[in-house]
Design brief:
This protein has 18 helices and 7 strands. It is of the alpha+beta class and 465 residues long. The chain has 3 domains: 84 residues, Double Stranded RNA Binding Domain, CATH 3.30.160; 105 residues, DNA polymerase, domain 1 (Orthogonal Bundle), CATH 1.10.150; 178 residues, hpI Integrase, Chain A, CATH 1.10.443.10. The strands form 2 sheets. The chain has a 4-stranded antiparallel β-sheet, with helices on one face. A 3-stranded antiparallel β-sheet has the order 5-6-7. β2 and β3 form a beta hairpin. α4 runs antiparallel to α5, α9 crosses α13 and α10 runs parallel beside α14. Belongs to the 'phage' integrase family. Keywords: DNA integration, DNA recombination, DNA-binding. InterPro entries: DNA_brk_join_enz, Integrase-like_cat_sf, Integrase_catalytic, Integrase_DNA-bd_sf, Integrase_DNA_bind_dom, Integrase_recombinase_N, Tyrosine_recombinase_XerCD. It comes from Pseudoalteromonas arctica.
């Protein structure tokens, strides 16, 4: 093997001592084969012509191996060229395969549900979703018993066992559908290629096609009753309910001001007197915005003063924002809501009370100066209902239903309403809000019945209508 090259160990040792960096020690037996002296060490290289006729120089071995071993490697490269294989590309391909194999091996560590949840999915949800922490809590609460299992080994029996156990505890099926959807979404994410890894951690989501058991007759009856309750919540507020809400807000305003006067009188003189303020608490303008725009509470919490854009050419202000519920969707679109009349007064009055009303969150925590907790409004809403005599079962979200129902009743086109409240199309509004006016329906049914009446009776019915 020593005869493969004219470079002996002795020649190499002498060259290393005397040569300057970038000098070459060539071989008389293998064309293009040489040793390159570097500033620190050296390298065995081969200069050759590739299959496309391009001259290339490749490092074929490091300086630590003997000349005979490096020569054998050079001869091997030349043999590959004669076989129609570019050895440098072949070497790069092997290196890439090795890297991918190492990446896949590292990714397999995260095949366990718990490992993937903690190391990959948790940062993803917290960094990219406003309410990601809530989704993570749902997954951990429902499926932590599967955290030691590998994701690709999950099956329908695991889901059925979980479902039956939770149903036995009285959990609503609609809640379980939501919880299962959150868990399935996590596995869908695991089946997507992640940044820096060419292959997804999970090749196929094993529960992707699994659905929860069909509703029993009892569950169907319960769901129908629940939907009936929701349908009433989508009705337009009666004048009585509207008056009760207004009364509750007025009494709550006065209550807050009275409490502040009492606090100041009892030694807390550093507190601001609220008597001259339009809104002694953030909840009151928050409530008015919900009433006048139909916005979801989560979107009102996220509003910034920068979302209010004033057009100096037409003297109009527009509220522009992207609903948080669809912010990550590919077809998400901005809502453009004209700010006029009472709504403009609410924003202007609240802005007048703020020291830095031109920047940042419109409603923020006085303690942290950050976004308020997403259910912070409910405590105040409960007090307003109590003070105004509003039925306890009226949800704050009903402001959104009332807003949509009001527009429907006034004949506003469904697509216009959908664009105003952040729906991608009008299907949901058409399915849930387009109900006939009951008084008109009664008249129509009365006329239909009259077809069976005598001519005299029919004339009397028609006159009465």
């Amino acid at each position: 093997m020593a005869d493969l090259t004219s470079i002996t160990q002795a020649k190499l040792s002498t060259f290393k001592k005397s040569a300057k960096p970038r000098q070459q020690l060539g071989c008389n037996k293998i064309s293009g084969f040489f040793y390159l002296k570097l500033s620190h060490g050296g390298a065995w290289r081969l200069r050759y012509t590739d299959l496309l006729g391009k001259r290339r120089t490749a490092t074929i071995a490091d300086a630590n191996i003997k000349p005979s071993q490096a020569a054998a490697e050079a001869i091997s490269w030349k043999a590959k060229l004669r076989e129609g294989i570019d050895p440098l590309s072949y070497k790069e391909g092997l290196a890439q395969s090795q890297r991918e194999e190492e990446q896949l091996k590292a990714a397999n560590v995260y095949l366990k549900v718990g490992e993937f949840f903690e190391a990959i999915y948790t940062p993803h949800k917290l960094d990219n979703y406003r309410y990601g922490a809530g989704t993570l809590k749902v997954i951990k609460h429902n499926f932590d018993h599967l955290f030691n299992r590998e994701m690709d080994k999950l099956n329908s029996a695991d889901i059925l066992q979980w479902y039956n156990k939770r149903r036995a505890k009285g959990i609503k099926r609609s809640t379980l559908v939501r919880d299962f959807g959150a868990f399935k979404a996590m596995l869908n994410y695991a089946a997507q290629p992640l940044k820096g890894v060419s292959e997804p951690i999970l090749k196929v989501n094993p529960i992707k096609s699994i659905t929860l058991p069909a509703l029993t007759i009892k569950e169907q009856d319960e769901l129908e009753a629940h939907n009936e309750k929701l349908s009433h919540q989508r009705d337009i507020f009666s004048q009585e309910v509207k008056q009760q809400i207004n009364t509750g807000l007025a009494l709550y305003t006065e209550k807050l001001k009275r409490q502040r006067r009492s606090s100041i009188a009892h030694g807390k003189s550093h507190l601001i007197n609220l008597d001259n303020l339009t809104y002694p608490h953030w909840f009151i303008p928050f409530c008015h915005i919900a009433r006048l725009t139909g916005m979801r509470p989560s979107d009102i919490y996220a509003l910034k003063w920068e979302n209010l854009l004033f057009n100096q050419f037409n003297d109009q202000t527009t509220l522009i924002f992207t609903p948080s519920k669809t912010k990550k969707a590919e077809n998400s679109r901005k809502i453009k809501f004209p700010v006029t009349g009472e709504l403009k007064h609410v924003f202007d009055s609240w802005a007048a009370q703020q020291e830095q009303a031109k920047h940042g969150l419109i409603f923020k925590s006085e303690r942290t100066n950050k976004t308020l907790e997403r259910k912070a409004h409910l405590r105040h809403w409960k007090q307003v209902k109590t003070l105004g005599g509003v039925l306890e079962g009226l949800d704050f979200y009903s402001f959104r239903h009332n807003f949509i129902s009001g527009l429907v009743a006034r004949g506003v086109p469904v697509l216009t309403i959908a664009g105003l409240v952040g729906h991608k199309d009008g299907s949901m509004i058409a399915a849930n809000y387009l109900r006939h006016d009951e008084s008109n329906l009664t008249k129509a049914l009365t006329l239909l019945e009259s077809n069976w009446s005598t001519p005299e009776e029919y004339r009397n019915v028609k006159k009465s209508n």
